[in-house]
Amino acid sequence: MNHVIHLKRRPKGKPQLEDFEFVEEQKPKPKDGEILLKTKYVSVDPYLRGRMRDQESYIPPFELNEPIESGIIAEVVASNNDHFKEGDFINGMLKWKEFQISMGNGLNKVDPDKVSLSAYLGILGLTGLTAYISLDKIGNLKEGETLLVSGASGAVGSTVGQIGKIKGCHVVGIAGTDEKLKLMKEKFGFDKGINYKTTDDMKKAIGDACPNGVDVYFDNVGGEILDAAMDNINKNGRVINCGAISLYNETDVPTGPRYEGIMVRKTVLMQGFLVRDHATEFGPATKQLEQWLNVGKLTYEETIVEGFKNIPQAFLNLFEGKNKGKMVVKI
Amino acid sequence: MNHVIHLKRRPKGKPQLEDFEFVEEQKPKPKDGEILLKTKYVSVDPYLRGRMRDQESYIPPFELNEPIESGIIAEVVASNNDHFKEGDFINGMLKWKEFQISMGNGLNKVDPDKVSLSAYLGILGLTGLTAYISLDKIGNLKEGETLLVSGASGAVGSTVGQIGKIKGCHVVGIAGTDEKLKLMKEKFGFDKGINYKTTDDMKKAIGDACPNGVDVYFDNVGGEILDAAMDNINKNGRVINCGAISLYNETDVPTGPRYEGIMVRKTVLMQGFLVRDHATEFGPATKQLEQWLNVGKLTYEETIVEGFKNIPQAFLNLFEGKNKGKMVVKI
User: Fold this and answer.
1) Fewer CB within 10 Å of terminal CB in chain A, N or C?
2) What chain A residue is nearest to B245 in terms of C-alpha separation?
3) Does the keyword ATP-binding apply (chains A, B) (predicted)?
4) In 3-state terms, chain A is what percent helix, strand and coil (to 5)?
């Protein structure tokens, strides 16, 4: 039998285990032109929360009683397709199934000898590309500028901070535990860290950690931390809206202070970013990330949860900040 | 005697006549290298409210018990400076005085035979330049797109709308009286108008007037109208934060719905704009505006108040929406 995870009901507020359902189906057999894939690593990401909501967005919402999909590394275990052979590993947007059939469309082969397979879901996957391309397109970092990052020990945030250091910036990260702060500074080379959970006055804390103000704020969280960043933004500052995890589980319309005044006075640029819009740049961006990885300018952290049955819980843990770096489930 | 208008106290909330003081001084006499200027037209603008506040901003705040300054057209009535002769008209940032002395720095000669003198404070002054340069730098209008403008019958807004029509856009304006809506459509060629004072559901009204959504929102007002525009913004929409007049007189921190979610989902670009940052583009931009003016593609409206003593009241009237087009005081 083949195990599959369905979205059973749309989460209200914070997702719960009961929003998911484990279903069994016959293990599929590849027909002509098809390949049989065995799931090895599953990426769980905050943006999946958005697809569980029945709303217009950049990708269609998940259907109820259908499998959820996310970034997955799988092994080709049977092939009737000339482009893939048994033993190949591929990366693609696939379903939360132990085994599945594909025609190969949208799948990219990955090399397990170059880096660990899970890295293709992180630093060399959409998370690394998000960091690199958004800083390139919107951040426009200049040497000596100050880069502030929220969700800084996470998959995207830790890469953003390291690229900031490569570019010669003063890099300050915000995270929710002292352990994460230590990781940021010792492993990823951030200059300063702020623990938002033990800090009362975030506006002041950011001001203290960024004595020259904030030139670029890379935002993964939204909400009050964004407010405090805006209170410290410099003239011609840039804000990259990459995510807003602090709001994803809100059931009411979240409110906060208005930014219009600051936007005008400081001529701030604020721009939302979705890595999927930049597929044409994935090639050169991946090459740059690989090169930095090879020469040791870039490193990464993963939180690996084991077992197909633990995928939903790993996803829920994202909203508790239980991951350090990329959260991946190993099957 | 020479009459001068001082800032007497910093306005709390909405400015009042009592915030200003009329002072008399000796009429000045030009020394060597100096010119004597007689004020002809005074520009009153919403942004001056910001300079009355004691806060860090893009220009220093006005000092208490010192003259206010704004864009002024003046006549050279005496000259000890080779670059200016009696009878010249100039445009510059000058003090609210009937007569004043200058060395000529920062003054530009204007030609009263080309267009009416007051136009140099409006369509050929900072307001016209604001419209043209911000649309060029941030708006990036494409033929067939939808442009939404607030403060649409005002000096900047009416120029923005007309440039939108020149670029082949569907142009919708928001204003506060039916008379202004009529002006927008009949004189400035807007496709649709929305009276925000008589409309309960601005989100729906904008949706109805912009059936293909909003590609570019040019915001002069901020607040709830910005919220309603964001509710209708398209993927890759651009928001130009040019002003936030609805908030200028707020004494508490204004709050509203958070935009982070929309910014990410729709990959919106939002950017504050101050025309002073773009002085190097004033030359070519003015040429383009003059050319459009000459061939009748661009027109303008002015509200001219008469009399030096009425400058403060004309400024206050801006916050009541009493102007159509550029508000100017003729001395």
Assistant:
1) N
2) A261
3) no
4) 30, 30, 40
Determine which of A59, A245, A258, A275 to mutate to test the interface with B (most B C-beta atoms within 10 Å). Answer: A258
Domain spans of chain A, in order of start: 2-122+302-330, 126-276
ipTM, 2 decimals?
Answer: 0.86
Is the CB of residue B266 less than 8 Å away from at least one CB of chain A? yes
CATH topology of domain A126-276: Rossmann fold (3.40.50)
When computed from its CA atoms, the radius of gyration of chain A, rounded to whole angstroms, is 20
User: Domain spanning A2-122+302-330 has what CATH number?
Assistant: 3.90.180.10
Q: With residue B306 as reference, give the H or E element that holds it.
A: strand B302-306
Facing residue for B265 by CB, picked from A58, A256, A265: A58
Q: Taking CA B291 as the corner, what is the angle to CA B289 and CA B293, rounded to the nearest 5 degrees?
A: 70
Enter the CATH code of domain B2-117+301-330. 3.90.180.10
Contact across the interface for B273 and A256, Cβ inside 8 Å: no
